[in-house]
């Protein structure tokens, strides 16, 4: 750990020479707490600012006792939001309500759109150059909401805004590993599109693994609706928190390493993208190479099977609708 910290500090060729300040907004929640814990263990983090409307003093005091070389601060309520955000290189946003059984992610829009808009307005004011990692659902719409807020404030840079879709990739590795009896850590699946139901498209044909058509259909459905499995099992108490914290910490770590100058880091993430522009879709997830300024190179979709072409056709109208809803929310009279 000491060695990688020295790497981060001594050899960085990035926009920051020391470890980063990372702010977590929604830090006292089901995702926020374990995510903050994992970030406290990350050697690239110098300062960890934990913000929520409740309970952050306790969470921050607790996490601050962990003996890693970063400073933790707790911030509660809107009057302390500016301090949490100021000087942040990375802002992670898991603030918002989770699903209950029977709900779609879009059903969260009415509550979460307003929360994300308010937090984005503060980020545009206090940390306009930070990288924003959006976890709050519906991600397909909350990312465009943040973009529109930043555009209005005149500080939008698409290379610094990310919808966190890492959990879909994590699930895809796990489910394929289970079916093929292989180590899930070694299974890499390119998951493209968005983060809800049919907009989640695992490209199993690109894995190099042989599947029967039945396996492809069952695995695709399970990856698309993996979130529902957890919502159902939690029986009204929430959605994925622990696996999401791990996925969020993985994406944050990848970005921090790229910001610190490490090369060749690629993660699928939902960004403003050229990839599906011809079909009228402005935000789309594919593999993205991360660099010292955030998005370095957006990879294309790559070769797809006929089955995956049909997935794409089904996803496009839903993505368009979700994106338009987010854009309109910010720009309504
Ligand atoms: P939670 O209810 O346990 O925690 C949410 C936290 O947000 C709470 O602590 C709450 O106080 C806080 N909050 C509410 N309004 C706020 C505001 N204005 N400012 C700051 N904090 C505020 O929910 P959770 O299980 O942690 O889920 C959070 C969100 O993440 C949900 O929208 C959920 O759907 C989403 N999620 C996304 C993914 C993904 O893959 N992107 C995965 C899992 C969950
Ligand atoms: C997930 O994929 O687990 C999250 O988006 C939460 C949810 O509502 O399913």
Report the bound ligands by name, code or SMILES.
nicotinamide-adenine-dinucleotide, (2S)-2-hydroxybutanedioic acid
Number of helices: 11
Oligomeric category: single chain
Termini separation comes to 51 Å
Percent strand equals: 15-25%
CATH class of the largest domain: Alpha Beta
Number of strands: 11
Q: Fill in the CATH topology of the largest domain.
A: L-2-Hydroxyisocaproate Dehydrogenase, Chain A, domain 2
What characteristic shape results from the CA principal axes?
A: globular
**Helices and strands: which structural class?**
alpha/beta
How many domains, as an integer? 2
Rounded Rg: 19 Å
Spatial arrangement of strands, main beta sheet: 3-2-1-4-5-6
- The helicity comes to 40-55%
Please name the CATH architecture of the largest domain: Alpha-Beta Complex
Binding site for NAD(+): 26-32, 52, 112, 135-137, 244
Domain Lactate/malate dehydrogenase C-terminal: 165-330
Family: Belongs to the LDH/MDH superfamily. MDH type 1 family.
Binding site for substrate: 99, 105, 137, 171
């Amino acid at each position: 750990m000491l060695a990688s910290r020295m790497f981060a500090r001594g050899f960085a060729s990035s926009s920051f020479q020391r470890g980063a300040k990372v702010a977590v907004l929604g830090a006292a929640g089901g995702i926020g707490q374990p995510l903050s814990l994992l970030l406290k263990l990350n050697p690239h983090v110098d300062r960890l600012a934990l913000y929520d409307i409740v309970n952050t003093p306790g969470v921050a005091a607790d996490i601050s006792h962990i003996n890693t070389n970063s400073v933790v601060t707790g911030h509660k309520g809107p009057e302390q939001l500016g301090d949490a955000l100021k000087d942040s290189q990375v802002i992670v946003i898991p603030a918002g309500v989770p699903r209950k059984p029977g709900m779609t992610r879009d059903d969260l829009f009415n509550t979460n759109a307003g929360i994300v808009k308010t937090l984005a307005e503060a980020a545009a004011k206090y940390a306009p150059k930070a990288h924003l990692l959006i976890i709050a659902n519906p991600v397909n719409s909350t990312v465009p909401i943040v973009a529109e807020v930043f555009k209005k404030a005149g500080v939008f840079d698409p290379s610094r805004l990310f919808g966190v879709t890492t959990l879909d990739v994590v699930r895809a590795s796990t489910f394929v590993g289970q079916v093929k009896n292989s180590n899930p850590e070694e299974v890499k699946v390119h998951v493209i599109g968005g983060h809800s139901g049919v907009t989640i498209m695992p490209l199993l044909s690109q894995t190099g693994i042989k599947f029967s058509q039945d396996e492809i259909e069952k695995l695709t459905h399970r990856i698309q609706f993996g979130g529902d499995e957890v919502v159902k099992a939690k029986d009204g108490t929430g959605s994925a928190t622990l696996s999401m914290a791990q996925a969020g910490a993985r994406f944050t770590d990848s970005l921090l390493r790229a910001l610190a100058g490490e090369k060749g880091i690629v993660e699928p993430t939902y960004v403003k993208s050229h990839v599906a522009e011809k079909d009228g879709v402005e935000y789309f997830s594919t593999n993205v190479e991360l660099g010292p300024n955030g998005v370095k190179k957006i990879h294309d979709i790559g070769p797809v099977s006929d089955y995956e072409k049909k997935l794409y056709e089904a996803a496009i109208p839903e993505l368009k609708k979700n994106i338009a809803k987010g854009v309109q929310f910010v720009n309504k009279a």
